[in-house]
Specification:
alpha/beta; about 270 residues; 7 helices; four-stranded mixed sheet; N-terminal domain of TfIIb; Trna Endonuclease, Chain: A, domain 1; 12 strands
C-alpha cells in the first residue's frame, strides 16, 4: 500500500468536524500564500488607493481615471491614476514597497533597506515626470497645471524628509485637497476629460502586455561589439547626450535616428549616419 492510499484511509476515518477544520487550515494556508505574492500586493495597493479616492474626494468635483496607458513618440507610458478637477490635474504613481526608504527630490536613485540589504531604485519623481509631461502635451495644458504625486503603499517607512507630494496612502488625498485655487472652468474640464477618454488606449490585457514589452525593449542594453558602437553625439539644443532610437511607424519605420535623452523636455533629433 502506498503513502497516498494510507493517507486517504486515515482521512476517511476522521470525524466530519475534524475534516472541516483540516480543510479550513489548508484554505487558510493557501490564502496566506496568495496574500504574500508581490503581484497580489501590487493589485491590492492599487485598489486601496482607489478606495481612498472614492472615500475622500467628492465625485462632483474630482473625476478619477485608473490604469491609463497613453501613446508616446517612442512607445507608450502607463499612469496608475489621474485625478481631474477644477483645481488642477493630478498624475499619481503608486509604489508598493516595504522597508526603510531613503531619498531626496533631486537624487537620481533612492534606496530601500530591508534589514541589512540595500537596493537602489529610480527616483519615482523622475519616473512620474514623463507621465506628467505626456499628459500635459496630450491635453495642451500650461506648465504648473499638472501635478505629480507619489503614493507609497505597503509596509514602508520614510527615513529622510520627503517632498509634500511624496506620501503614504491617506496623505495623497490630503495633498490633492490642499489645492484650492480654481485652474479650469467647467467647459475646459469637460474637454480635458473627453481628451483622456479618447486619447487613452483600451485598458485590456493586450495593451498592458504591449506596454511591458516596450519597457523591456527600452531598458535592455543591446549586445554589440566595440567596432559597432557608434559615437554618442551631444544634443545641439540643450547639451545632453543623445540616444540612438528606431522609428517604429510611418514611411521611415526601421530607420535609426538620434534623439535627446531628456525627451520629452527636449525633442531635438539628428539623422543617424549608421
Amino acid at each position: 500500500m502506498n503513502l497516498l492510499q494510507l493517507f486517504l484511509d486515515a482521512y476517511g476515518q476522521l470525524p466530519g468536524q475534524t475534516k472541516l477544520i483540516l480543510w479550513s487550515l489548508v484554505a487558510l494556508s493557501i490564502l496566506i500564500r496568495i496574500l504574500q505574492l508581490p503581484k497580489f500586493k501590487g493589485w491590492f495597493g492599487e485598489k486601496f488607493v482607489q478606495f481612498l479616492f472614492k472615500l475622500h474626494l467628492p465625485e462632483d468635483e474630482y473625476t478619477r481615471f485608473n490604469n491609463v496607458t497613453l501613446p508616446t513618440e517612442d512607445g507608450t507610458t502607463q499612469i496608475d491614476h489621474i485625478i481631474v478637477s477644477k483645481y488642477g490635474i493630478f498624475c499619481i504613481e503608486t509604489k508598493n514597497m516595504r522597508g526603510w526608504i531613503y531619498g531626496s527630490e533631486k537624487q537620481a536613485k533612492w534606496t530601500q533597506v530591508i534589514y541589512k540589504k540595500k537596493t537602489q531604485f529610480q527616483n519615482p519623481l523622475r519616473q512620474n515626470y514623463k507621465h506628467t509631461e505626456t499628459l500635459r502635451t496630450l491635453l495642451e495644458l500650461p506648465e504648473g497645471s499638472v501635478h505629480s504625486v507619489i503614493v507609497f503603499v505597503g509596509d514602508s517607512t520614510f527615513k529622510t524628509k520627503m517632498p509634500p507630494n511624496v506620501t503614504y496612502c491617506r496623505g495623497c488625498t490630503d495633498y490633492i485637497l490642499s489645492f484650492k485655487g480654481v485652474t479650469f472652468d467647467e467647459q475646459r474640464l469637460q474637454d480635458i476629460k473627453k481628451a483622456i477618454r479618447t486619447g487613452r488606449l483600451e485598458p485590456t490585457r493586450a495593451t498592458h502586455k504591449q506596454h511591458v514589452e516596450h519597457l523591456k525593449e527600452k531598458f535592455t542594453e543591446p549586445q554589440i561589439t566595440p567596432t559597432e558602437t557608434p559615437a554618442v553625439p551631444t544634443c545641439p539644443k540643450c547639451g545632453s547626450p543623445m540616444i540612438l532610437r528606431t522609428t517604429k511607424k510611418g514611411p521611415k519605420a526601421g530607420q535609426q535616428f538620434w534623439g535627446c535623452s531628456t525627451f520629452p523636455k527636449c525633442r531635438k533629433t539628428l539623422q543617424s549616419t549608421a
